[in-house]
């Protein structure tokens, strides 16, 4: 009985706010406020509020919500583990693709020679160091990998 009264009061207050908003010539906002304020009244008239009130004080209903929550946690956990692992076929395909990408003892990528050949110490400019040379080689490796994947 109290829930119906509260819902009716909320609906009346919402319709009053909608009327004030419409008076200020904000008709779209007023219509939206009126729609939201009619929802509690509709819930009271359909009997949903009575059902919720009966459910809120029922220990069996709360136990049911607990079981539903537990099942949701179990589903979420299994989905998260499945996404991290992948299926058996996906793991097997990934291992096969990884072996094909680079030979175990190769010093250069198996896609082809690097874009730049390393300079000999005699022809290397004075400003460059070995660190910048190796960085250039690393970028050529990355470029080759990206080209292989079509990026």
Could you characterize the architecture of this molecule?
- This protein is an all-alpha fold.
- The chain has six helices and no strands.
- Helix 1 packs antiparallel against helix 2 (27-46).
- The two termini are 66 Å apart.
Biggest sheet overview: none
- Give, in order, the helices and strands: HHHHHH
Gyration radius over CA? 34 Å
Unreliably modeled segments: none
Distance between the termini: 66 Å
Q: How many β-strand runs?
A: 0
- Number of helices in the DSSP assignment: 6
Q: Shape, please? A: elongated
Strand content: under 5%
The average pLDDT score comes to 79
Percent of residues in helices comes to over 70%
Structural class: mainly alpha
Short key terms for the protein model shown above:
74% helix; mainly alpha; 6 helices; 151 residues
